[in-house]
Amino acid sequence: MKATTPTPLLLIWLVPLLLLSFAAWGPQTRGAAESPAADAVASPSIIKGLVVLVQFPDARAAVDRSMVERRFNRQLGDYVRQMSYGKVSLAVDVTERWYEMPKPVTGYRISPRNLEVDKSRVRVLIDDALGAAEKDADFSKYSFVAIFMAAGIRDYGMIGLCGYPGMLGWRDEDVLRTRNGHVVPGGVAIFCYQAHLGTLFHDVAHILGGVRDGKRVVPCLYDHDLQAKPGPVRETFHEAIVNMGFWDPMSCHYWRRDAPPPGLSSWTKLRLGWLEESKVRTVRKSDETEVVLGPLQDGSAEVLAIKLPVSGSSFYLIENRQPIGYDQNLPGSGVLILYADDEIAECRHGRAPVKLVNAQPSVPRLEGAAFDAGERNSFRDEANQVTIRIEEKIGDAYRVRVSRKPE
Fold this sequence. Notes:
five-stranded mixed sheet; 9 helices; disordered N terminus
């Protein structure tokens, strides 16, 4: 196939969107200050990725290849490094050429609502893109592949998605192969050129987490049924973030479009293997203890999360979110209490693998979910005999009392 250089897209509405996206793409924007201990690991695990550049006969936005390299290697790479406390480093190759797809983008266009997506169109785009690139790329060298389109959300319909494990399933038989039979390790994500840094991470994280026991290790944390309701797409999406609100990009992608994404919750960090068990204090039934809980973004803190097992599959997590590093991009700060159930795979039918306990239910979209010393300083689950009380704030840390006894 002939590969050409994209020509400018002469649509006035795209200019402000592109400029806005540039402003939201990484560390040069507010809120991405270094987190303590982000570089503490001398030899991080290196994850290799490949970005396949594609364009269409009817959509060729003016996107520079160097910008794509910067977004994945510097900006996404910085985010992954900080969220993993320096344990993981990305090394992403970007194809030298833009591959032109055989169909116009309208031939691949999908619904913006997950449950309404025509999966056959996702499959055809992946097949066409990987088929064009496989003569130049050895997919076996990479842990994930991202298809990056010189097309916008109004052209394609969705800003970003994960093909596998995602839209095309996550069973063993769903593993992707090219038309020539080459296995694509890990998985494949698809992005419009306008995709926010939080969107890039969200869909790559599905691949990094992988599949275990027939479930995605890192699923979406917004409610798929609510996201499928009719109405303006962004407003409908906001109504779907009922589980984790703006406190994790697996739920929201971002809080504000013109800022980087927030940091990850302790639940997602544990799922990815980035939060060490030695940094998690477990409080079992009949116990009572006090813990000094450091900010989740401060990898040097002795305790970063508190875990309270409830049943064989369910447990509470307690974490401290302060305006440090990427957590400057949150709607608030304080102590979050999460209730998780490992038996639940996806956010469907009103159930979710993890949900926030909301300290201020009157504040919409869980923006007031954080507890703090003072008026919103305690939580009691009578059925499970769990009491959590924030005794005081000490700098950026909190002294938290946890009781597993009857009151």
